Here is the input.
Amino acid sequence: MQRALVMGSSGSGKSTFARRLSTMTGIPSVSIDALFWKPGWVESDKDEFERRVIDAAREPRWIMDGNYMRHGAGELRRELSDTIIWFDLPRSTCMLGILGRIAGSYGQVRPEMAEGCPEKIDLEFFRYVWTYRRQQRPKLIEYFAGLRPDQSLVCFTDRTQADIYLESVARRQNRASIH
Here is the structure.
């Protein structure tokens, strides 16, 4: 694994997973949200965002957390990735995830967010997560259909699977450091 996309609904745990995987492997973590948002929750200009993502995607190694398939050089990111990790979790898990995140970091800027974008209560965001499986999931499935045979797709349907995956990465890292 040199270039991995971590995708799925907000609240699924993909950002936490990406940070943990980055720490274990030493592969730099890139947050698409941090590239997209400007202070005060202002969206980046489409061309500016596209340039930022292209620059990040051209780096030799990354773990890129976030969807943004239509924007931000989605095709280029898919083309360059060797591994795609998909958090395909139930709506209830993701809703509880964002509620827990808000409760734990309200008013603070999370590590994967752009400076000046503190955690807040946003009803439109709740609606996005609530409708994610119906509206966004089909787009992800279509996006994954464009993968090549040499690319790996890893799908988690619960967080325990993600934890087991990270444990296996840690074991491989430990074995490699012994030899």
Observations:
- The domain at 3-157 is CATH 3.40.50.300 (Rossmann fold).
- The chain has a mean pLDDT of 93.
